[in-house]
Structure formats: C-alpha cells, structure tokens
From TrEMBL:
Tree of life domain: Eukaryota
Gene Ontology MF annotations: catalytic activity
Protein name as it appears in the record: Uncharacterized protein
Gene Ontology BP annotations: nucleoside metabolic process
Amino acid sequence: MNHFPCLVIRGTCAYADSQKNDRWQCYASAMAAAYAQELLTYVSVAGVQETKRALDVLHLGHSLLCSLGSD
C-alpha cells in the first residue's frame, strides 16, 4: 500500500457482539459496491494509466529481495 495506491471498501454488516445477524449482509455488500462505482466516476483515466500496476511493483520487490539474498 505504500508503493501503489489502493483503497479497500467494505460493507459492514455485523457488530462485535453476540447479536450477529446475517440478514444485513446483502445490503452492506450492495452499499459497498454502489460506493465503489460512484468513487470510480471521480478517477481520471490518465491518472490510472500513469499508475504502476501492482504486479509490476511486486516483481520489482521480488527482484530486490533476490538481489539482497545473492550478496
């Protein structure tokens, strides 16, 4: 998360107590999906195209770790 932008959107449907109720799970997931869809309308295409892909960042990290191990 420090090297490429990411955002986690969750729909919360349970409290941390004994009153667990799965009835709200579908509503929470629908709200999270709707929020993500709305948020994507504010992201510019140019900004996305300029951002490094997560896979590229992971490959770079792997290469760096391998080079440290070979020293």
